[in-house]
């Protein structure tokens, strides 16, 4: 998930939640894990929820806050630590590849399968050939990177 942080002179600033969670996890002692991170952008506050085993005594919140403040203060964030007793629950699907969570992937996969059955391999080849060709031409004329590539290609012939 992408979290909105603040608006600056160059536009809006967004931060990836998983990147913040990984940074928090790298600071935590063994046996503790960051379960959730919340960003309160207008106050530059980073709410961190840390889980620990129920058999252990509760860790020192101030010590954790000092470690996290040292890590996140160069970014301008002030962390607030909340402790959660119990092992972190692993949500189903978190260990899956991001491609498998993409609706575009599943739509294209099923569409390709139906195309193979309905059109056959030669029909599928022609559909892919003209589809890729149309994409390439549209990319050349409609995107800034494509226009730059086309301009540099045409500059070779002007010399």
Summarize the structure in words.
- The protein has a 3-stranded mixed beta sheet. It has a two-stranded antiparallel sheet with strand order 1-2.
- The protein folds into 2 domains: 2-85, 2-Layer Sandwich (GMP Synthetase, Chain A, domain 3); 98-158.
- By secondary structure, the chain is an alpha+beta fold.
- Helix 2 links the parallel strand 4 and strand 5.
- It contains 4 helices and 5 strands; from the N terminus they run E-E-H-E-E-H-E-H-H.
Brief summary:
This protein has four helices and five strands.
Topology diagram in text:
Elements: E1 2-8, E2 11-16, H1 17-27, E3 32-40, E4 45-52, H2 61-72, E5 78-85, H3 103-142, H4 144-158
Parallel strand pairs: 4-5
Antiparallel strand pairs: 1-2, 3-4
Helix pairs in contact: 3-4
The CATH homologous superfamily of the largest domain is named K homology (KH) domain
Derived from helix and strand composition plus strand pairing, the structural class reads: alpha+beta
What letter string, H or E per element, gives the SSE order? EEHEEHEHH
> How many domains is the backbone divided into?
2
Give the CA-based shape. Answer: elongated
What value does the average pLDDT take? 83
Distance between the termini: 49 Å
In DSSP terms (H or I, runs of 4 or more residues), the helix count works out at 4
Q: Give unreliable regions as ranges.
A: none
Enter the CATH topology name of the largest domain. Answer: GMP Synthetase, Chain A, domain 3
Gyration radius over CA: 25 Å
Helix content: 40-55%
Largest sheet: 3 strands, mixed
* Biggest sheet, spatial arrangement of strands: 3-4-5
CATH architecture of the largest domain: 2-Layer Sandwich
The CATH class of the largest domain is: Alpha Beta
Portion in beta strands: 15-25%
Q: How many individual β-strands?
A: 5
